[in-house]
Amino acid sequence: MSAREKVSVQEERLSRFVRPDAVLDLAVDSKEALLRALAEVVVEGASPEVVEWIYQGIQERESAVNTYVGEGVAIPHARVEAVEGISMAIARNHDGFTYGVETDQPVRIVVLVVGHESLHDEHVRLLGEVATVLKDPEVRRQILEAPDTEAILRILDARREKVARRKARPLSQLLVSHARRIGREMGVTAIIISTENREDLAVLKRLPGRAAFIVATSSRRIFEDAEKLVRRVVRLPSVPLRRDARIRLAALMALTQGMIQRGDVVALISGDGAGGLDTMTMLEVGREFGRFVTASGEMAPGVAPGVLERVIALAADLSREGREGRPIGTVFVVGDPEKLAPFCAQMVMNPFRGYPEEERNILDPTLAETIKEFAAIDGAFIVRGEGVVVSAGTYLKVSADVHLPGGYGSRHRVASAITDAADCVAVALSQSTGEVTVFKNGAVVLSLSRSAER
Length: 454
Prior knowledge:
Blueprint: H1 3-8, E1 18-25, H2 31-41, H3 48-64, E2 68-70, E3 73-74, E4 77-79, E5 86-97, E6 107-115, H4 120-134, H5 137-145, H6 149-158, H7 170-186, E7 190-194, H8 198-205, E8 214-217, H9 220-227, E9 232-235, H10 243-256, E10 265-271, E11 277-284, H11 285-289, H12 305-321, E12 330-335, H13 337-340, E13 344-346, H14 368-374, E14 380-383, E15 389-396, H15 410-421, E16 424-429, E17 436-440, E18 443-448
Helix pairs in contact: 2-3, 5-6
């Protein structure tokens, strides 16, 4: 079995990658001692030479970017030619570890991920899954209080979802079962179900012709279950948004991924979470997004939908969390750096210059904390279409003479102006309101207001 095949076996279970003796309760006095202890147990039967290669690989990654990801969690990682497949090791300490970064709370949980050099995509996906699981404060609490290794592994496999196992509301059944008949009368050409509740999928499962529906969710587990029921599934960013913002984001992502077209009329069925589906909203794609999107549905040539999703998610995270207790405002510009160059100048030394591209790709979840740290610098982030962060602290030299509704400040005006001057997408985060706004061709494509939850 090859290294790549080994990773694909039972990929949905995180405990698959952790041996029981690779879960440690540690009390060490340095980050180096912590990382070496994890390196020694992560791969079963590793020779001292391989352990040293693993440790050096981790240290090289840490010297580039600190792998603290927030919320008291760090995810150091490395890819090493001498190991097979992917393995994880876990360390916990309720009092916290020294980790070489100023944090609002101690680093209490550290998960080391080590994989074969060839397994880049699988490595990144696993990092994302670990980060998603540990973002849930209840999961972190349970891991710290778990009595033994087996309990920790069960918590990992439960992931971050604690979905109530209760019968779906009758209204959910009525909305889903009658959606197509209502849609025909209203000229609907596509139906999107926006849900974070697995019970809504149970309603969909009983419906003939269910494959024609589109499901939108931020839950990886629901995403995977939905793929077995319908042909098209949209993965939303895992950030708290108001319902109206969430359904418009679902429609925009379905459009950019080619699931719906500019001329479609879309019905979006949504609910309030565990309570079930209770609302149907009609949206004319051409009226909402048509003038900002190409005929093929692309936001901009060469900009991957996953990159746009990640930028929006990071901006929304900053909106909710701020930095060191202070609200943050910033701009992300996604496009071709050569075409953007005439409109850009560095305000400070570029902190991303000189690092390998694979270590500064915005799709890598361990880069999130670095992005959030540099968001406090005045200026914008420039991000290439496939996700590589080109620069931070970049001054946008472009006229802000744009036509925007009242209430938008200088940051939004320059974000709008850069998309009018160059073929790119800009995402602006308001420091005062926390609203995330997406611009294209000088105009607002989407505004995402924070949920009152959390």
